[in-house]
Design brief:
The complex is a heterodimer. Chain A has 2 domains: 1-119, Orthogonal Bundle (Rna Polymerase Sigma Factor, Chain: A); 121-181, Orthogonal Bundle (Arc Repressor Mutant, subunit A). Helix content of chain A is 71%, strand content 0%. Chain A contains 9 helices and no strands. Chain A has helices at residues 3-16, 20-41, 48-62, 73-98, 102-107, 123-128, 132-143, 148-155, 159-177. The longest helix of chain A has 26 residues, at 73-98. The radius of gyration of chain A is 18 Å and the shape is globular. The longest helix of chain B is centred in the C-terminal third of the chain and has 26 residues, at 185-210. Chain B is mainly α. The chains are: A mainly alpha, B mainly alpha.
Chain lengths: 181, 213
């Protein structure tokens, strides 16, 4: 078993237990692995890499309850990353069938990014499209760092509504990125 | 948006995750599904009147054991397919084993029977309604198992949908066996399998559409 498997699993398991700094470290570390994974497989589509890294991170976050600590983390992450990669191919196949096929030829001249670039989509704009009961909890808790209780007080929502709002909002974000909403 | 910002957004205030989400989700789903299936059978068909006598016959228990073992095997398949990266192991063999065993019993019954008995062994009295009854009874279980899966993260959607469908079909057949008057192995080996196949195929078709995330 590799060193990063052990380290990452330890961080994730602590994160699943509510340790947010361990979870933050897990996601940060994971993003570098995901970037390397996608960069190799998307050498013809370098612009998609960072978008896909973010999509996979959202997926890992939204589906983290499906990780069984008794199973290897590598297999779990790999299956999610592959699933998102295949999803991207499928979406592009649909898009290319509808749009100008010249797009593909132009990719040959696209320069390759070596650094973690900004993803092209603006998550802040996507957030604005969420309904208030999802957007407000995310903005208060996630961006301003308030607790559930404080967010509930600030928004006038119940505590369970705040938790549900964050959860549903992140799911909706993932769906928006997939182009479903 | 920078990836680091997204990471900070996801990590801040991320609550602890309750353990055993998968087990709780499937328990809830199958509980409600079984309740719905039993209700449909009770309203539509009723329990066979000679159930008290039937339970004394070994064939009756074979008829229950067949869908029961398939139910267990497909539950294992469905739960594994609900998690990314879980190996399937010998699940396929576990699903095939009860079907093959049932077919062997059927063949044994057919080759030892007199020619004039064959029709009765194969078609019984209810062959025309049996597969559709099983499919109808499995509807609540079908919806429930797809719901359970939808809340998890299947990555092989056709297989996952098929496993959810088979789970529903086997559960439906198990409930239907309490009503069904047929006692011949060939009948069960053909019509029960066909009945369970309906939700299985439907699940495999719907899986890629319904289970995406």
């Amino acid at each position: 078993m590799s060193v990063s498997e052990v380290r990452l699993r330890d961080l994730l398991v602590r994160g699943l237990g509510g340790d947010t700094s361990a979870y933050h470290a897990f996601l940060k570390d994971l993003s570098t692995h995901l970037r390397a994974f996608f960069r190799v497989r998307l050498s013809r589509l370098p612009d998609e890499v960072e978008d896909l890294v973010q999509e996979a991170l959202l997926a890992v976050h939204n589906q983290r309850h499906t990780y069984d600590p008794g199973e290897p983390l590598t297999a779990w992450v790999h299956a999610i990353a592959r699933y998102k990669l295949v999803d991207l191919y499928r979406r592009r196949a649909v898009r290319d069938a509808l749009n100008d096929p010249l797009d593909d030829e132009l990719d040959v001249f696209a320069s390759s990014d070596t650094e973690a670039a900004d993803a092209r989509r603006d998550l802040a704009k996507l957030l604005e499209r969420l309904p208030d009961q999802q957007r407000l909890p995310i903005v208060h808790m996630k961006l301003q760092g308030l607790s559930v209780v404080e967010t509930a007080r600030a928004t006038g929502m119940s505590e369970s509504a705040v938790k549900v709002g964050v959860h549903r909002g992140l799911k909706a974000l993932a769906a928006m990125i997939r182009g479903e909403l | 948006m920078k990836t680091d910002e997204l990471i900070a957004l996801l990590a801040s205030g991320a609550p602890a995750i309750e353990a055993n989400t998968l087990q709780r989700r499937y328990t809830t789903a199958l509980g409600w599904g079984a309740f719905g299936a039993t209700l449909i059978m009770a309203i539509k068909l009723g329990v066979r009147s000679d159930l008290a006598e039937a339970i004394l016959l070994p064939v009756f228990w074979v008829k229950l054991a067949f869908p029961a073992t398939l139910f267990a095997a497909s539950l294992l398949a469905a739960t594994r397919l609900s998690r990314p990266g879980m190996p399937l192991g010998h699940v396929a063999a576990g699903i095939a084993a009860p079907i093959v065993a049932m077919w062997l019993l059927a063949v044994a019954a057919l080759i030892t029977a007199a020619p004039e008995e064959l029709d009765g062994l194969i078609f019984g009295e209810t062959w025309a309604s049996c597969p559709l009854n099983i499919a109808t009874i499995s509807v609540p279980l079908f919806a429930a198992s797809l719901w359970a899966m939808k809340g998890l993260a299947p990555t092989r959607l056709t297989l996952a949908g098929g496993a959810a469908g088979l789970l529903a079909g086997a559960g439906g057949a198990l409930v239907y066996a309490l009503n069904c008057p047929e006692m011949a192995a060939p009948f069960i080996a053909i019509w029960y399998v066909l009945g369970m196949l309906i939700p299985t195929v439907l699940g495999a078709i719907l899986g890629p559409r319904l289970l995406r995330w």
